[in-house]
Amino acid sequence: MNWAAHLPILPVLLPLATGAALLLLDARTSRMKAGVGLASVFVQLIAAVALLRLADAPAPTVYALGNWPAPFGIVLVADRLAAVMVLLTTLLGAAALVFSLARWHGTGRFPALLQFLLMGLNGAFLTGDLFNLFVFFELLLVASYGLALHGSGVARVRASLHYIVVNLAASLLFLVGVSLIYGVTGTLNMAQLVERIPEVAVADRAILESGAAILAIAFLVKAAVWPLGFWLPATYAAASAPAAALFAILSKVGVYAVLRLYLLFFGGQAGSELLFYGGIATGVFGAAGMLAAQGLGGVAASSLVVSSGTLLAAISRSDAGVTSGALFYLVGSTLGLAALFMLVELVQRARAPGADVLAVTGEAFGIDNDEEPGEGSGPAIPATMALLGVAFLGCTLQLAGMPPLPAFLAKVSMLSAVLAPTPVEGPAWVLLALLLVTGLAALVALARAGVAIFWAEASAVPRVLLIELAPIAALLALCLALTIAAGPAMRYFQDAADALHSPKAYVDAVLPRR
């Protein structure tokens, strides 16, 4: 049996089976649950790395479920972009799981929800048709609802309810858009849609375009584009640390869907100006949010909005060189944000309630402190504040786009591509200004928070466990590794971008009998 041929289904089936098994285990068997979860994520990591190598080929790997070929059966398509996203998801899942073992793992259904979220994310990145994209979106959202509520607390419940309502509305739009597209094309297979869309009769073009527009709104809500992303900062800032670290990739699912379908169906031409200026507005909104945030959690959540805006603006340029830099930025920024979300809990542990810059405002409005789990078990580490400070410095350099971390290289790559044509177009200068302004805003906001946490206040030294700091260090080490291996990484992202802008190989691989 050729096991490599079944690799695309493993990142979906394994977390599904693990999540189901964890639901059956009693809450008293926390060590067994931790062992099962860690073993599953370890195997998923091996599979994701193998999938990354398998996908580094001229044509994507197609897995037909039940051996039914497309467009009649369900297919998973593992190309370079999907493989990168699966590996990124698994890395965040492993880091969040290890971090959660200290304080969050033993409460509620966190271990099972984490596995179901990984299953939904991996399926969304690998699926080859729109209906299953909708199914996997719903699965990951249901798991994320539970994770957003995990840990209780008034602020967390309030923000999570907003998150649930907004995403339910977006899911309804998703279903309406998919239905309209199916009504005029007769298929939801992505590869077949590439062929059917140009053949749609003139009389049906309005329905097709309406369906595509509604679908785009649903994706942009999930990508937190301005003004549809108002829900994100409050929800992510209120979520528990390991859940927020995993959520760092949720908005990237919306960005991924826009990138995949926008280039596949319309060649990057339809609505490019709207997408560009929407991305710019999102970046500016996020930068303002970072400067206005009263706590480090708010800064991290607003930084996530900035990264979504930057990616959407870059995607709208429809240039393979810009897209490759955007993919590099996507990976690096997601790793840095996940590390920062986990770091927030550790640095705030040392601070008295209401010690944030303007926390007096929270007291004036009667904002409650969330309930937190009890003290974790395990050895604490020495020189805690020094290590936290180094980790915070790494996150600051990454999110501000400063050398030597990969966000700097990604921004240089995007600017090199966007400023290459002569004369340079006006939108290129706007994108340049966005990258500079958002980087400066991140530097100011994080430096201000860092001074308050590590310098200006006489904070008590927090009790930090090794298994809490290790995943943060691992994510930042991956950022540094991306810088060291920038050459091979950029080659991979350039190949992925070239394939996205020339989807013929994708269509030929999925529909070989045309």
UniProtKB/TrEMBL annotation:
Bilayer topology reads: Multi-pass membrane protein
Q: Which gene encodes it?
A: mrpD
One BP annotation, GO: ATP synthesis coupled electron transport
Matching entries from NCBIfam families are given as: PRK12666.1
Question: Its principal location?
Answer: membrane
Say which species the protein is native to.
Usitatibacter palustris
Every NADH:quinone oxidoreductase/Mrp antiporter transmembrane domain range: 128-421
InterPro entries linked? CPA3_Na-H_Antiporter_D (IPR050586), NADH_UbQ_OxRdtase (IPR003918), ND/Mrp_TM (IPR001750)
Q: Which domain of life is it from?
A: Bacteria
Per the record, the similarity remark reads: Belongs to the CPA3 antiporters (TC 2.A.63) subunit D family.
- Protein name in UniProt: Na(+)/H(+) antiporter subunit D
Q: What are the entry keywords?
A: Cell membrane, Membrane, Transmembrane, Transmembrane helix
State any GO CC term.
Answer: plasma membrane
One short Pfam family name for this protein? Answer: Proton_antipo_M
Locate the transmembrane regions by residue number: 6-25, 37-55, 81-104, 116-141, 161-185, 206-229, 241-262, 274-293, 327-344, 380-400, 430-455, 464-486
Subcellular compartments = Cell membrane; Membrane
Listed GO molecular functions? NADH dehydrogenase (ubiquinone) activity
